[in-house]
């Protein structure tokens, strides 16, 4: 079983609902949500770039968020 070096943003503080990121030996990026660490996503560079651009551009609705 492969062990990954998962990291979370320093902006997360002590919160438990954080997005974690890790890189594999072949530079593939992995994402997981700390509340559900067994579900791991491996987005393409283009898809991850689009997500980051959308977050930076504040293109998400806050409806339904606590």
Order of helices and strands: EEEEH
Strand arrangement, major sheet: 1-2-3-4
The CA-CA distance between the termini, in Å, is: 36 Å
Low-pLDDT segments? none
Secondary-structure-based class equals alpha+beta
The tally of strands reads 4
Summed up, the helix count is 1
In terms of quaternary structure, what is this?
single chain
What would you report as the Rg, rounded to the nearest angstrom? 13 Å
Shape call: globular
Helix content: 10-25%
- How large is the share of residues in beta strands? 25-35%
Explain what you see.
It is a single chain. The chain is of the alpha+beta class and 66 residues long. 18% of the residues lie in helices and 27% in strands. The chain is built from 1 helix and 4 strands. The protein has one helix at 45-56, and strands at residues 7-8, 19-23, 29-33, 36-41. It has a 4-stranded antiparallel beta sheet, with no helix packed on it. Strand 3 (29-33) and strand 4 form a beta hairpin. The longest helix has 12 residues, at 45-56. The protein is globular and about 40 Å long. The chain starts with 6 loop residues before the first strand and ends in a 10-residue tail after the last helix. The model has no long low-confidence stretch (mean pLDDT 82).
Secondary-structure topology with pairs:
Elements: E1 7-8, E2 19-23, E3 29-33, E4 36-41, H1 45-56
Antiparallel strand pairs: 1-2, 2-3, 3-4
